[in-house]
C-alpha cells in the first residue's frame, strides 16, 4: 500500500457515517441466479447511486476485503466484514447498501458432513455480529434438491475438485433439506427480516427471479427511480454436458496445480460446452427414483418454509 493510499484510507475512516443506514443482505444460495443479481448491480451502478444505493457485489473485491472466503474461524472475520460494509457507507455517503455474496453462508456441502450448508449456524451468527445495530433484511433462494445437487456437483468439477457424484450423493441425499437452513435464518435474523425465493417457481407473466430479487431489495431500502427491465434475468453459466463431465473425471486426476486445472476448465467450456458434439446431452447423475423422491421432499419442505417466512 502506498503512502497516498494510506492517507486516503485514514481520511476516509474519519468521515462520519451517513444517517439512516440500512442493508439488504443477499446471501445465496449458490447456483440460484446470484451471479446474475451481482452482474446487474455492477452494470447499473450509476442509476443505483442516484437513488442513494451503494452496492457491494464484486466477488474478488469481497474476497480480498475478507481475507478469502468468509470464515468465522479466521481471526478478525467479523471485523473484516463490518469494516468492508462500513467503508461503503463512508466512501459514498449513500445510506442504503445492497450486499450480495453467496459464500457468507459457508459451503453447500462439506467433506464428511451430511446435509445442506452444515456450517450455516456459525456463519450466520458472524454476519449478524458484523451488521449489528443496522436495520437489515436477508434474501435467500432455495432450489429443488435434485437440480441443486447436480449443479453444485458440476461446480466442484469446474473448480477442479476430484469427487465422484455417488460419493457425494451417498453422504447428503438422505438429509438434504432447506428447513433447517431457513430455521437458522429465522433464529438469527427474525422471520420478519427474511425473504425466501423459490428458484423453480413458474414466473410466466411475472418478473423473472433476478428482477424480483433486485426489485424487492430496492423496495426494502426505500429506493425509487431505478428501472429494472427485462435484462434482469437468469444468466446461467455453461452447463456441463455428459461428455464434459466424463472427460473431467478422467483428466482431472492427471493434472498438477491450479493453473493446469483452470486451463483444462477453459478448454472444456470453450471446446465442448459452447460447441457440444452431436448426440451429447446435459450431464445427469441422479437416477429417476431418487430424483422423484427429492422432488416430493422439496414440495413438502416448501410448504414448511412458507409457514415460517415470506416465500416468493
Account of the 3D structure:
The protein is of the alpha/beta class and 312 residues long. It is built from 13 helices and six strands. The protein has helices at 3-14, 34-43, 45-50, 59-66, 77-92, 120-130, 145-158, 165-172, 179-189, 209-221, 242-251, 257-273, 288-306; strands at residues 22-26, 53-56, 96-100, 136-142, 194-198, 310-311. It has a six-stranded parallel sheet with strand order 2-3-1-4-5-6, with helices on both faces. The longest helix has 19 residues, at 288-306. The radius of gyration is 20 Å and the shape is globular. The N and C termini lie far apart (45 Å). The model has no long low-confidence stretch (mean pLDDT 91).
Describe the oligomeric state of these chains in a short phrase: single chain
What is the overall silhouette? globular
Tally of separate helices: 13
Proportion of residues in helical segments: 40-55%
Computed Rg: 20 Å
Secondary-structure element order, N to C: HEHHEHHEHEHHHEHHHHE
Main pleated-sheet profile: 6 strands, parallel
Beta-strand residue percentage: 5-15%
Query: How many strand elements?
Result: 6
Poorly predicted tracts of residues: none
pLDDT average, as an integer?
91
Structural class determined from secondary elements? alpha/beta
* CA distance, first residue to last residue: 45 Å
Spatial strand arrangement across the major sheet: 2-3-1-4-5-6
Amino acid at each position: 500500500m502506498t503512502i497516498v493510499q494510506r492517507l486516503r484510507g485514514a481520511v476516509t475512516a474519519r468521515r462520519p457515517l451517513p444517517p439512516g443506514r440500512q442493508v439488504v443482505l443477499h446471501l445465496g444460495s449458490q447456483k440460484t441466479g446470484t451471479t446474475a443479481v451481482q452482474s446487474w448491480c455492477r452494470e447499473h451502478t450509476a442509476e443505483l447511486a442516484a437513488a442513494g444505493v451503494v452496492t457491494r457485489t464484486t466477488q474478488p473485491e469481497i474476497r480480498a476485503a475478507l481475507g478469502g472466503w468468509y470464515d468465522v474461524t479466521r481471526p478478525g472475520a467479523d471485523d473484516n466484514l463490518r469494516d468492508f460494509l462500513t467503508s461503503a457507507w463512508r466512501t459514498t455517503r449513500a445510506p442504503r447498501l445492497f450486499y450480495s455474496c453467496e459464500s457468507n453462508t459457508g459451503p453447500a456441502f462439506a467433506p464428511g458432513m451430511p446435509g445442506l450448508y452444515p456450517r450455516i449456524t456459525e456463519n450466520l451468527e458472524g454476519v449478524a455480529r458484523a451488521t449489528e445495530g443496522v436495520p437489515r433484511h436477508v434474501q435467500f433462494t432455495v432450489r429443488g434438491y435434485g437440480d441443486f445437487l447436480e449443479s453444485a456437483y458440476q461446480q466442484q468439477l469446474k473448480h477442479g475438485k476430484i469427487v465422484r457424484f455417488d460419493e457425494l450423493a451417498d453422504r447428503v441425499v438422505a438429509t438434504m433439506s432447506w428447513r433447517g437452513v431457513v430455521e437458522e435464518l429465522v433464529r438469527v435474523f427474525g422471520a420478519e427480516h427474511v425473504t425466501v425465493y423459490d428458484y423453480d417457481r413458474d414466473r410466466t407473466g411475472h418478473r423473472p427471479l433476478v428482477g424480483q430479487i433486485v426489485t424487492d431489495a430496492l423496495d426494502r431500502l426505500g429506493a425509487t427511480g431505478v428501472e429494472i427491465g427485462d435484462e434482469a434475468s437468469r444468466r446461467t453459466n455453461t452447463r456441463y454436458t455428459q461428455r464434459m463431465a466424463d472427460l473431467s473425471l478422467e483428466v482431472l486426476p492427471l493434472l498438477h496445480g491450479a493453473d493446469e486445472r483452470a486451463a483444462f476448465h477453459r478448454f472444456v467450456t470453450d471446446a465442448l460446452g459452447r460447441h457440444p458434439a452431436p448426440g451429447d446431452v446435459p450431464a445427469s447423475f441422479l437416477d429417476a427414483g431418487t430424483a422423484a423422491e427429492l422432488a416430493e421432499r422439496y414440495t413438502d419442505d416448501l410448504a414448511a418454509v412458507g409457514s415460517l417466512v415470506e416465500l416468493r
